[in-house]
Amino acid sequence: MSETTAVRDQLLSDLKAVVADSEELLRATAGSLDERASAARARVQESLRAARNKLEGIDGEMLDRVKQAAGATDDYVRDHPWGAVGIAAAAGLLVGVMIARR
Asked: Residues near 26 by Cβ (< 8 Å), separated by ≥ 6?
């Protein structure tokens, strides 16, 4: 997994945690708010709803991209099996050299 993908996954995970914690806070404070706070609470709920919808869309989009990448990789390996073996061997050699340097 690339560093960019790992950072994106961590960001999505953190955002999901913030949404869940915010929803829990809203539930806990539901009965103890005045009129202004109730309006603010309604705005926060709407923002959370929008964030949750975006997260669901991002998850679906990421899954589609992973499926496309896996399909393209499978097609390449089937069309060029020896090339794929060579690439895998080179990657293994590179990883071995990097580990040996430590």
From this structure: 41, 44, 45, 48
